[in-house]
């Protein structure tokens, strides 16, 4: 019997493609963000509010993932930014190959910001690197404040927690401070914004976070060039 | 439930590695899974057994090593295992600690046996 050491990641093929995507995003100065949540937390609503707020001339595109239907892409196309639906046909997450394939006929030089809406699932998408600069986890107040403890991986790996549907707080037994505390137990120092995509409450904080990320990314890209 | 994809990737890696070891067959593949990796061990075992069933790799065993979440203290340098999400340094009580492991999803090793070396489970080539 001989034991051979294997020094590689299980998802090394996905990581390889994601690494190539990351290099391309950097080269073309594209900030790529990967939005993850359970189904119905409001990822699409957050993107709708975002696209509605961004200036028309902004160089923004969206890839939106679902198991079936073009519903989300149809919702997001109204804002006149390039949008493409990725239907996985059963797969519970997006992987780097799907992103590569769906970017094939977009010129990255035309983009500054690529927003990816993952398949609604709080577990599996956390294992698949898509070449993004950051993951963002969305949690709605209708879901329970212990979600960060139950599904730690995605909270651990995300830079930002968007607590959505705060307009429902008077009607649901959800302690927003406990939720934030739980998120920071899993991910000390995690950034958190509280929003309602319905009323618009708190959205300026989200847009500010996004703008700061874009500025930082541009600065980094210029540094790399010079 | 993405453990089927993970199991497939493990098996693909085994097949690739076996190309480097002619005259042997694989007995056991070891993977390291961090407790923050969002992988369900039972589901992974179930999927692994399902995809090796009725194949030449039916006797291949899956070894899973679970890696706890470990942090290092920025202040005093102490490394420790995080339990119950308490990431405070047990030595100096600082909250300024950094995660150094716990989200692994790695292939660790492959155990191979020469054909004829053992009578059990060996399926020698024709």
Features:
heterodimer, A: 226 residues, alpha/beta, Rossmann fold, seven-stranded parallel sheet, 21% strand, B: 126 residues, alpha+beta, hypothetical protein PF0899 fold, three-stranded mixed sheet, three-stranded antiparallel sheet, 2 helices, 6 strands, 22% helix
What is the alpha-carbon Rg of chain A in Å? 18 Å
CATH second-level architecture of the domain at 3-68 and 102-114 in chain B: 2-Layer Sandwich
Number of strands of chain A: 8
Stretches of chain A where pLDDT falls below 50 for ≥5 residues? Answer: none
Strand order of the largest sheet of chain B: 2-1-6
Biggest chain-to-chain interface with counts:
A-B, 31 and 37 residues
CATH topology of the domain at 3-68 and 102-114 in chain B: hypothetical protein PF0899 fold
Q: Point out poorly predicted stretches of chain B.
A: none
Largest sheet of chain A: 7 strands, parallel
User: Would you tell me the structural class of the helices and strands of chain B?
Assistant: alpha+beta
Work out the radius of gyration of chain B.
Answer: 19 Å
| % residues in beta strands of chain B | 25-35%
The average pLDDT value of chain B, as a whole number, equals 91
Number of E-state strands of chain B: 6
How is the quaternary structure best described?
heterodimer
Q: How does CATH name the architecture of chain A?
A: 3-Layer(aba) Sandwich
Q: Helical amount among residues of chain A, as a percent range?
A: 25-40%
